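Researcher: We're teaching a course module on how sequence relates to structure. For the next exercise, students receive a sequence and then see the predicted structure as C-alpha coordinates, so they can try to spot secondary structure elements on their own. Here is the exercise chain.
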Amino acid sequence: MLTHALEKLRARDGLVLERLQTTTRKSDVAPLLKIPLVQDFARLQDIDPALAALQVVAQCVRDTTDGTHQIVADAVLGLGVLGDGYSQYGLEEKVIQALRADSLGRRRATLLNNWRHLHLAMGLVPSHPPSDRTLRGTMESDVLRQLARQLLQPENHPLVVPEPAPVPPGTPRVAPSGRVIVVGGAVMDVVFRTKLIPQHETSTLADDCLITPGGKGVSQAVAAARLGLKVSLVAALGDDRFGQEIVEHLRAENVDTSLLKIVRGARTPMTGVFELRLGDSIAAVWRNSGEINLGVRDLDLLARQIADCDAVLLTFEVPRETFQRATDLAHPDEHSGPTVIVTPGQPYADGGISRLALSQIDFLVAHAWELERYIPAGHSRFDPDRVGEHLLERGVGTLCLLGYGGGLVYSQTTPRIDRLPTVSSPFKESSSTRDAFCAALAAKLIDDGTFTDTVAEWATAAMACVAEDHTHSTTMPDRDRIDRKLRSARAGR
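Model: And here is the predicted structure for the students to work with:
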Protein backbone atom coordinates (compact mmCIF):
# COMPACT_ATOMS: atom_id res chain seq x y z
CA MET A 1 0.00 0.00 0.00
CA LEU A 2 2.80 2.40 0.83
CA THR A 3 4.64 1.62 -2.42
CA HIS A 4 1.41 2.22 -4.32
CA ALA A 5 0.96 5.58 -2.55
CA LEU A 6 4.50 6.64 -3.48
CA GLU A 7 3.88 5.61 -7.09
CA LYS A 8 0.76 7.79 -7.14
CA LEU A 9 2.59 10.73 -5.56
CA ARG A 10 5.44 10.67 -8.11
CA ALA A 11 3.03 11.75 -10.85
CA ARG A 12 2.87 15.35 -12.10
CA ASP A 13 4.80 17.66 -9.75
CA GLY A 14 5.87 14.87 -7.42
CA LEU A 15 5.99 14.69 -3.64
CA VAL A 16 5.42 18.32 -2.68
CA LEU A 17 3.93 19.74 0.50
CA GLU A 18 0.92 21.37 -1.14
CA ARG A 19 -0.10 18.08 -2.68
CA LEU A 20 0.16 16.22 0.61
CA GLN A 21 -1.96 18.88 2.30
CA THR A 22 -4.63 19.50 -0.32
CA THR A 23 -5.05 16.35 -2.44
CA THR A 24 -8.71 15.42 -2.86
CA ARG A 25 -7.89 11.72 -3.07
CA LYS A 26 -6.99 10.97 0.53
CA SER A 27 -6.34 7.33 -0.34
CA ASP A 28 -3.27 8.49 -2.30
CA VAL A 29 -1.61 9.98 0.79
CA ALA A 30 -3.16 8.21 3.79
CA PRO A 31 -0.72 5.25 3.82
CA LEU A 32 2.21 7.70 4.02
CA LEU A 33 0.69 10.06 6.58
CA LYS A 34 -0.34 7.25 8.92
CA ILE A 35 2.90 5.29 9.23
CA PRO A 36 4.29 5.39 12.81
CA LEU A 37 7.53 7.14 11.84
CA VAL A 38 5.66 10.08 10.31
CA GLN A 39 3.17 10.27 13.18
CA ASP A 40 5.94 10.19 15.80
CA PHE A 41 7.99 12.82 13.98
CA ALA A 42 4.95 15.09 13.63
CA ARG A 43 4.36 14.91 17.40
CA LEU A 44 8.04 15.44 18.21
CA GLN A 45 8.34 18.56 16.05
CA ASP A 46 4.77 19.77 16.64
CA ILE A 47 4.08 20.00 12.90
CA ASP A 48 1.29 18.67 10.70
CA PRO A 49 1.67 15.09 9.34
CA ALA A 50 1.99 16.32 5.75
CA LEU A 51 5.12 18.34 6.53
CA ALA A 52 6.43 15.52 8.70
CA ALA A 53 5.93 13.06 5.82
CA LEU A 54 7.86 15.27 3.41
CA GLN A 55 10.79 15.66 5.82
CA VAL A 56 10.86 11.97 6.75
CA VAL A 57 10.84 10.84 3.10
CA ALA A 58 13.58 13.36 2.26
CA GLN A 59 15.81 12.03 5.05
CA CYS A 60 15.10 8.44 3.99
CA VAL A 61 16.23 9.28 0.46
CA ARG A 62 19.43 10.84 1.82
CA ASP A 63 19.89 7.72 3.95
CA THR A 64 19.50 5.26 1.07
CA THR A 65 22.64 3.14 0.79
CA ASP A 66 22.25 2.34 -2.93
CA GLY A 67 23.48 5.44 -4.77
CA THR A 68 21.50 4.79 -7.95
CA HIS A 69 18.31 4.25 -5.94
CA GLN A 70 19.01 7.54 -4.16
CA ILE A 71 19.38 9.46 -7.43
CA VAL A 72 16.28 7.87 -9.00
CA ALA A 73 14.07 8.39 -5.94
CA ASP A 74 15.10 12.04 -5.61
CA ALA A 75 14.33 12.71 -9.29
CA VAL A 76 11.07 10.81 -9.81
CA LEU A 77 9.57 12.19 -6.56
CA GLY A 78 10.84 15.70 -7.40
CA LEU A 79 12.34 16.16 -3.91
CA GLY A 80 15.54 18.00 -4.83
CA VAL A 81 17.40 16.92 -1.70
CA LEU A 82 20.53 16.07 -3.72
CA GLY A 83 20.57 19.43 -5.47
CA ASP A 84 23.29 20.99 -3.32
CA GLY A 85 25.62 18.08 -4.05
CA TYR A 86 24.93 18.48 -7.77
CA SER A 87 25.70 22.21 -7.51
CA GLN A 88 29.00 21.55 -5.75
CA TYR A 89 29.97 19.17 -8.56
CA GLY A 90 29.25 21.91 -11.10
CA LEU A 91 26.08 20.73 -12.80
CA GLU A 92 24.18 23.49 -14.57
CA GLU A 93 21.40 25.06 -12.54
CA LYS A 94 18.90 24.43 -15.33
CA VAL A 95 19.58 20.69 -15.01
CA ILE A 96 19.13 20.80 -11.24
CA GLN A 97 15.88 22.73 -11.63
CA ALA A 98 14.62 20.30 -14.28
CA LEU A 99 14.98 17.46 -11.77
CA ARG A 100 12.31 19.27 -9.73
CA ALA A 101 10.09 20.18 -12.67
CA ASP A 102 6.30 19.88 -12.30
CA SER A 103 6.26 17.26 -15.07
CA LEU A 104 7.28 13.67 -14.29
CA GLY A 105 8.16 13.18 -17.96
CA ARG A 106 10.63 16.05 -17.88
CA ARG A 107 12.18 14.79 -14.65
CA ARG A 108 12.63 11.34 -16.19
CA ALA A 109 14.19 12.73 -19.35
CA THR A 110 16.59 14.90 -17.36
CA LEU A 111 17.54 11.92 -15.19
CA LEU A 112 18.34 9.73 -18.18
CA ASN A 113 20.13 12.45 -20.19
CA ASN A 114 22.38 13.32 -17.23
CA TRP A 115 22.74 9.81 -15.78
CA ARG A 116 26.55 9.75 -15.87
CA HIS A 117 27.09 13.22 -14.39
CA LEU A 118 24.52 12.71 -11.63
CA HIS A 119 26.37 9.58 -10.52
CA LEU A 120 29.78 11.27 -10.69
CA ALA A 121 28.41 14.17 -8.65
CA MET A 122 27.49 11.71 -5.90
CA GLY A 123 30.93 10.06 -6.01
CA LEU A 124 29.62 6.92 -7.75
CA VAL A 125 30.94 4.88 -10.66
CA PRO A 126 28.24 5.39 -13.29
CA SER A 127 26.60 2.40 -14.93
CA HIS A 128 24.96 2.51 -18.35
CA PRO A 129 21.69 4.43 -18.14
CA PRO A 130 18.55 2.28 -18.37
CA SER A 131 16.12 2.69 -21.21
CA ASP A 132 13.08 4.86 -20.65
CA ARG A 133 10.97 1.70 -20.70
CA THR A 134 13.12 -0.01 -18.05
CA LEU A 135 13.10 3.10 -15.86
CA ARG A 136 9.31 3.37 -15.99
CA GLY A 137 8.50 -0.33 -15.95
CA THR A 138 10.78 -1.84 -13.31
CA MET A 139 13.44 0.46 -11.85
CA GLU A 140 11.13 3.10 -10.39
CA SER A 141 8.91 0.47 -8.76
CA ASP A 142 11.95 -1.26 -7.26
CA VAL A 143 13.29 2.05 -5.93
CA LEU A 144 9.98 3.09 -4.38
CA ARG A 145 9.45 -0.37 -2.89
CA GLN A 146 12.85 -0.14 -1.18
CA LEU A 147 11.99 3.36 0.05
CA ALA A 148 8.73 2.02 1.51
CA ARG A 149 10.70 -0.64 3.39
CA GLN A 150 12.91 2.06 4.91
CA LEU A 151 9.87 4.02 6.03
CA LEU A 152 8.42 0.94 7.69
CA GLN A 153 11.64 0.03 9.53
CA PRO A 154 12.02 3.02 11.88
CA GLU A 155 14.63 1.32 14.04
CA ASN A 156 17.10 1.94 11.19
CA HIS A 157 16.14 5.54 10.62
CA PRO A 158 18.16 8.55 11.90
CA LEU A 159 15.04 10.52 12.75
CA VAL A 160 14.03 8.05 15.43
CA VAL A 161 14.38 9.42 18.95
CA PRO A 162 15.16 6.78 21.59
CA GLU A 163 13.19 6.44 24.76
CA PRO A 164 14.48 8.90 27.39
CA ALA A 165 16.71 7.52 30.11
CA PRO A 166 14.90 6.79 33.39
CA VAL A 167 14.90 9.71 35.81
CA PRO A 168 16.14 8.91 39.34
CA PRO A 169 13.41 9.08 42.02
CA GLY A 170 13.07 12.49 43.60
CA THR A 171 14.55 14.38 40.63
CA PRO A 172 12.45 17.49 39.91
CA ARG A 173 10.98 17.53 36.43
CA VAL A 174 11.26 20.84 34.58
CA ALA A 175 9.31 21.14 31.36
CA PRO A 176 11.26 22.85 28.55
CA SER A 177 10.36 26.51 28.22
CA GLY A 178 11.00 28.07 24.84
CA ARG A 179 11.75 26.51 21.44
CA VAL A 180 15.25 27.06 20.01
CA ILE A 181 16.78 25.88 16.75
CA VAL A 182 20.57 25.95 16.35
CA VAL A 183 22.01 25.93 12.81
CA GLY A 184 25.73 25.26 12.90
CA GLY A 185 28.54 22.74 12.91
CA ALA A 186 28.89 19.30 14.44
CA VAL A 187 32.48 18.05 14.64
CA MET A 188 34.64 15.79 16.76
CA ASP A 189 37.28 17.72 18.71
CA VAL A 190 40.70 16.27 19.48
CA VAL A 191 41.93 18.44 22.37
CA PHE A 192 45.53 18.45 23.59
CA ARG A 193 46.03 20.21 26.93
CA THR A 194 49.57 21.53 27.17
CA LYS A 195 51.74 23.98 29.10
CA LEU A 196 52.68 25.72 25.85
CA ILE A 197 51.67 25.69 22.22
CA PRO A 198 54.42 24.19 20.04
CA GLN A 199 56.22 26.50 17.66
CA HIS A 200 56.94 25.78 14.00
CA GLU A 201 58.98 22.58 13.51
CA THR A 202 58.88 21.74 17.23
CA SER A 203 56.85 19.43 19.44
CA THR A 204 55.70 19.47 23.05
CA LEU A 205 54.38 17.00 25.58
CA ALA A 206 50.65 17.15 26.34
CA ASP A 207 49.25 16.84 29.86
CA ASP A 208 46.03 15.32 28.59
CA CYS A 209 44.19 14.40 25.38
CA LEU A 210 40.43 14.37 24.92
CA ILE A 211 38.29 13.28 21.98
CA THR A 212 34.92 14.91 22.44
CA PRO A 213 31.95 16.21 20.40
CA GLY A 214 32.38 19.86 19.45
CA GLY A 215 31.58 22.61 17.00
CA LYS A 216 29.69 25.81 17.74
CA GLY A 217 26.41 24.21 16.73
CA VAL A 218 26.79 21.32 19.16
CA SER A 219 28.14 23.57 21.91
CA GLN A 220 25.33 26.13 21.66
CA ALA A 221 22.66 23.43 21.44
CA VAL A 222 23.95 21.74 24.60
CA ALA A 223 24.27 25.10 26.38
CA ALA A 224 20.67 25.99 25.54
CA ALA A 225 19.36 22.57 26.60
CA ARG A 226 21.13 22.91 29.98
CA LEU A 227 19.04 26.06 30.52
CA GLY A 228 15.79 24.16 30.14
CA LEU A 229 15.03 25.10 26.52
CA LYS A 230 13.58 22.73 23.94
CA VAL A 231 16.45 22.60 21.45
CA SER A 232 16.91 21.09 17.99
CA LEU A 233 20.25 21.08 16.16
CA VAL A 234 20.35 21.47 12.38
CA ALA A 235 23.76 20.28 11.17
CA ALA A 236 25.36 17.78 8.79
CA LEU A 237 27.63 14.94 9.87
CA GLY A 238 28.78 11.54 8.70
CA ASP A 239 27.44 8.15 9.72
CA ASP A 240 30.85 6.98 10.97
CA ARG A 241 31.75 6.18 14.58
CA PHE A 242 32.40 9.83 15.42
CA GLY A 243 29.07 10.91 13.95
CA GLN A 244 27.27 8.30 16.02
CA GLU A 245 29.07 9.50 19.16
CA ILE A 246 27.97 13.09 18.48
CA VAL A 247 24.34 11.98 18.09
CA GLU A 248 24.52 9.98 21.33
CA HIS A 249 26.09 12.96 23.13
CA LEU A 250 23.34 15.31 21.95
CA ARG A 251 20.60 12.90 22.98
CA ALA A 252 22.20 12.48 26.41
CA GLU A 253 22.06 16.29 26.74
CA ASN A 254 18.34 16.38 25.77
CA VAL A 255 19.01 17.97 22.39
CA ASP A 256 16.61 16.90 19.63
CA THR A 257 18.62 15.17 16.88
CA SER A 258 15.79 14.54 14.42
CA LEU A 259 16.72 17.53 12.22
CA LEU A 260 20.32 16.39 11.70
CA LYS A 261 21.44 15.55 8.19
CA ILE A 262 23.23 12.19 8.31
CA VAL A 263 25.42 11.60 5.23
CA ARG A 264 25.90 7.95 4.37
CA GLY A 265 29.51 6.82 3.95
CA ALA A 266 30.95 10.22 4.90
CA ARG A 267 33.54 11.04 7.54
CA THR A 268 32.50 13.43 10.28
CA PRO A 269 34.41 16.78 10.37
CA MET A 270 37.24 17.09 12.89
CA THR A 271 38.94 19.90 14.83
CA GLY A 272 42.42 19.70 16.36
CA VAL A 273 42.81 21.94 19.43
CA PHE A 274 45.79 22.91 21.58
CA GLU A 275 44.52 24.26 24.90
CA LEU A 276 46.59 25.93 27.64
CA ARG A 277 45.88 25.80 31.37
CA LEU A 278 44.06 29.12 31.55
CA GLY A 279 41.91 28.46 28.53
CA ASP A 280 43.98 29.93 25.66
CA SER A 281 43.73 27.77 22.59
CA ILE A 282 44.41 27.46 18.88
CA ALA A 283 42.60 25.13 16.51
CA ALA A 284 42.65 23.69 13.00
CA VAL A 285 39.29 22.76 11.47
CA TRP A 286 38.71 20.10 8.83
CA ARG A 287 35.13 20.43 7.57
CA ASN A 288 35.19 17.68 4.93
CA SER A 289 33.15 20.01 2.73
CA GLY A 290 33.48 17.62 -0.20
CA GLU A 291 31.18 15.14 1.55
CA ILE A 292 29.49 17.05 4.36
CA ASN A 293 27.31 19.94 3.30
CA LEU A 294 24.25 21.56 4.87
CA GLY A 295 22.63 23.19 1.88
CA VAL A 296 19.86 25.66 1.11
CA ARG A 297 17.46 22.88 0.13
CA ASP A 298 18.03 21.16 3.46
CA LEU A 299 16.84 24.29 5.25
CA ASP A 300 13.89 24.79 2.92
CA LEU A 301 12.46 21.49 4.19
CA LEU A 302 12.61 22.91 7.73
CA ALA A 303 11.08 26.30 6.93
CA ARG A 304 8.07 25.81 9.20
CA GLN A 305 10.12 24.79 12.24
CA ILE A 306 12.54 27.70 11.79
CA ALA A 307 9.81 30.32 11.41
CA ASP A 308 7.76 29.02 14.36
CA CYS A 309 10.48 28.74 17.04
CA ASP A 310 11.32 31.39 19.67
CA ALA A 311 15.01 31.84 18.84
CA VAL A 312 17.40 30.77 16.10
CA LEU A 313 21.11 30.52 16.90
CA LEU A 314 23.22 30.71 13.73
CA THR A 315 26.94 30.26 13.14
CA PHE A 316 29.25 30.82 10.18
CA GLU A 317 30.12 27.10 10.24
CA VAL A 318 27.57 26.50 7.47
CA PRO A 319 28.01 27.72 3.86
CA ARG A 320 27.22 31.38 3.36
CA GLU A 321 24.23 30.66 1.09
CA THR A 322 22.81 28.36 3.76
CA PHE A 323 23.37 30.96 6.46
CA GLN A 324 21.61 33.65 4.46
CA ARG A 325 18.70 31.32 3.66
CA ALA A 326 18.33 30.63 7.39
CA THR A 327 17.99 34.36 8.12
CA ASP A 328 15.33 34.61 5.39
CA LEU A 329 13.34 31.71 6.82
CA ALA A 330 13.55 33.15 10.32
CA HIS A 331 11.84 36.34 9.09
CA PRO A 332 8.84 35.28 6.98
CA ASP A 333 7.66 38.89 7.20
CA GLU A 334 8.74 42.17 8.84
CA HIS A 335 6.63 41.77 11.97
CA SER A 336 7.09 38.14 13.03
CA GLY A 337 9.67 35.45 13.47
CA PRO A 338 12.10 34.24 16.10
CA THR A 339 14.98 36.20 17.62
CA VAL A 340 18.07 35.63 15.48
CA ILE A 341 21.38 35.40 17.37
CA VAL A 342 24.51 35.03 15.23
CA THR A 343 28.06 33.90 16.00
CA PRO A 344 30.41 34.97 13.16
CA GLY A 345 33.34 32.70 14.12
CA GLN A 346 35.64 31.74 11.25
CA PRO A 347 34.50 34.54 8.89
CA TYR A 348 33.85 33.59 5.28
CA ALA A 349 37.14 33.78 3.42
CA ASP A 350 35.67 35.18 0.20
CA GLY A 351 33.68 38.08 1.67
CA GLY A 352 31.00 39.02 4.15
CA ILE A 353 27.30 38.26 4.18
CA SER A 354 24.75 40.32 2.29
CA ARG A 355 23.27 43.55 3.59
CA LEU A 356 19.86 41.85 3.65
CA ALA A 357 21.23 39.08 5.89
CA LEU A 358 22.80 41.67 8.21
CA SER A 359 19.46 43.44 8.51
CA GLN A 360 17.84 40.17 9.66
CA ILE A 361 20.24 39.68 12.59
CA ASP A 362 18.80 40.69 15.94
CA PHE A 363 21.99 40.01 17.95
CA LEU A 364 25.49 39.69 16.50
CA VAL A 365 27.79 38.26 19.18
CA ALA A 366 31.36 38.74 17.98
CA HIS A 367 35.03 39.17 18.82
CA ALA A 368 36.88 42.12 17.32
CA TRP A 369 39.04 40.10 14.91
CA GLU A 370 35.94 38.60 13.29
CA LEU A 371 34.66 42.00 12.19
CA GLU A 372 37.70 43.31 10.30
CA ARG A 373 35.93 43.06 6.95
CA TYR A 374 33.23 45.41 8.27
CA ILE A 375 35.62 48.31 8.90
CA PRO A 376 34.06 51.28 7.05
CA ALA A 377 35.71 52.41 3.83
CA GLY A 378 38.44 54.97 4.39
CA HIS A 379 39.45 53.61 7.83
CA SER A 380 42.59 51.52 8.06
CA ARG A 381 42.44 50.48 11.72
CA PHE A 382 39.80 48.76 13.80
CA ASP A 383 37.73 51.20 15.81
CA PRO A 384 34.94 49.37 17.68
CA ASP A 385 32.71 52.45 17.75
CA ARG A 386 32.92 53.00 14.01
CA VAL A 387 32.43 49.31 13.22
CA GLY A 388 29.48 49.17 15.62
CA GLU A 389 27.84 52.18 14.00
CA HIS A 390 28.58 50.77 10.56
CA LEU A 391 26.83 47.46 11.36
CA LEU A 392 23.84 49.22 12.92
CA GLU A 393 23.49 51.31 9.77
CA ARG A 394 23.29 48.07 7.80
CA GLY A 395 20.44 46.80 9.92
CA VAL A 396 21.99 44.70 12.70
CA GLY A 397 19.73 45.07 15.74
CA THR A 398 22.36 44.75 18.47
CA LEU A 399 26.10 44.09 18.36
CA CYS A 400 27.66 42.47 21.45
CA LEU A 401 31.44 42.84 21.08
CA LEU A 402 32.90 40.45 23.64
CA GLY A 403 36.17 40.80 25.49
CA TYR A 404 37.68 39.66 28.80
CA GLY A 405 34.74 39.14 31.10
CA GLY A 406 32.40 41.64 29.49
CA GLY A 407 32.33 43.74 26.35
CA LEU A 408 30.65 46.55 24.45
CA VAL A 409 27.07 46.79 23.23
CA TYR A 410 25.86 48.76 20.21
CA SER A 411 22.09 48.65 19.76
CA GLN A 412 19.32 50.29 17.77
CA THR A 413 16.76 49.63 20.50
CA THR A 414 18.57 49.87 23.86
CA PRO A 415 21.10 52.74 23.68
CA ARG A 416 21.42 52.91 27.47
CA ILE A 417 23.37 49.62 27.51
CA ASP A 418 26.78 50.56 26.13
CA ARG A 419 28.93 48.13 28.08
CA LEU A 420 28.34 44.54 29.12
CA PRO A 421 28.65 43.98 32.86
CA THR A 422 32.00 42.46 33.83
CA VAL A 423 31.74 39.22 35.78
CA SER A 424 35.34 38.52 36.66
CA SER A 425 37.11 35.20 36.08
CA PRO A 426 40.83 34.37 36.14
CA PHE A 427 40.42 32.32 32.98
CA LYS A 428 40.43 33.62 29.42
CA GLU A 429 37.43 33.42 27.18
CA SER A 430 37.11 30.77 24.49
CA SER A 431 34.64 29.75 21.83
CA SER A 432 32.75 27.85 24.53
CA THR A 433 32.28 30.95 26.67
CA ARG A 434 30.64 32.74 23.78
CA ASP A 435 28.44 29.72 23.06
CA ALA A 436 27.21 29.90 26.66
CA PHE A 437 26.60 33.65 26.28
CA CYS A 438 24.46 33.10 23.17
CA ALA A 439 22.42 30.33 24.78
CA ALA A 440 21.90 32.34 27.98
CA LEU A 441 20.95 35.40 25.94
CA ALA A 442 18.32 33.37 24.07
CA ALA A 443 16.96 31.88 27.30
CA LYS A 444 16.70 35.22 29.09
CA LEU A 445 15.15 36.97 26.09
CA ILE A 446 12.51 34.23 25.95
CA ASP A 447 11.90 34.76 29.69
CA ASP A 448 11.89 38.57 29.75
CA GLY A 449 11.05 39.61 26.20
CA THR A 450 13.50 42.54 25.90
CA PHE A 451 17.24 43.12 26.15
CA THR A 452 17.97 44.86 29.44
CA ASP A 453 20.89 45.26 31.84
CA THR A 454 19.61 42.25 33.76
CA VAL A 455 19.57 40.08 30.62
CA ALA A 456 23.06 41.23 29.67
CA GLU A 457 24.43 40.56 33.15
CA TRP A 458 22.95 37.07 33.29
CA ALA A 459 24.39 36.13 29.88
CA THR A 460 27.80 37.49 30.91
CA ALA A 461 27.66 35.44 34.12
CA ALA A 462 27.07 32.32 32.01
CA MET A 463 30.22 33.16 30.08
CA ALA A 464 32.21 33.48 33.30
CA CYS A 465 30.91 30.09 34.53
CA VAL A 466 32.27 28.33 31.45
CA ALA A 467 35.62 30.13 31.76
CA GLU A 468 35.97 28.88 35.33
CA ASP A 469 34.76 25.35 34.60
CA HIS A 470 36.71 24.76 31.39
CA THR A 471 38.72 21.86 32.87
CA HIS A 472 35.59 20.06 34.06
CA SER A 473 33.85 17.33 32.09
CA THR A 474 30.65 19.37 32.31
CA THR A 475 31.30 23.00 31.41
CA MET A 476 27.98 24.40 30.22
CA PRO A 477 26.11 25.83 33.23
CA ASP A 478 22.52 25.31 34.24
CA ARG A 479 20.39 28.17 35.55
CA ASP A 480 21.29 27.50 39.18
CA ARG A 481 25.04 27.69 38.41
CA ILE A 482 24.59 31.03 36.65
CA ASP A 483 22.48 32.43 39.48
CA ARG A 484 25.09 31.41 42.06
CA LYS A 485 27.90 32.98 40.01
CA LEU A 486 25.89 36.18 39.67
CA ARG A 487 25.20 36.39 43.40
CA SER A 488 28.89 35.82 44.13
CA ALA A 489 29.95 38.52 41.68
CA ARG A 490 27.50 41.06 43.08
CA ALA A 491 28.61 40.30 46.64
CA GLY A 492 32.23 40.96 45.71
CA ARG A 493 31.59 44.39 44.18
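Model: If you want an answer key for the exercise: The chain has a mean pLDDT of 87. The chain has two domains: 2-156, 179-188+214-491.
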